[in-house]
Amino acid sequence: DGMKRRWENLSLEVLDI
Amino acid sequence: MDNSILLANNQMITQVEGNLVSDMDGEKVMFSITNGKYYNLGEIGGVIWELLENPHTTDDIVMDLLTKYEVDKKTCEDQVFAFISLLHQEGLINIGE
């Protein structure tokens, strides 16, 4: 438990390049 | 076109070949040679992408993430399913038996 990283919501960003 | 998929927990998922991948500030950024689009998968999306270098099921992915991140199983499952569906819609992964 002490080793776990903070969760961030998954997303797939399509970059406008 | 209907891009929706019915994804089972035990279906094998792998990367589609033909993507250029780079790490930028801890996030995985990818260029698809096939469709000419750039994607930012984020940090955890990058972890999933690396797992998919070899065939994995969504169950495999969820179990791996649960050992690494502070998240409850339901949230993780829901988001992994949605993320995998998006990858499939963009033609970035293969879903098999």
Automatic annotation (TrEMBL), chain B:
Pfam families: PqqD. This is Lasso peptide biosynthesis PqqD family chaperone.
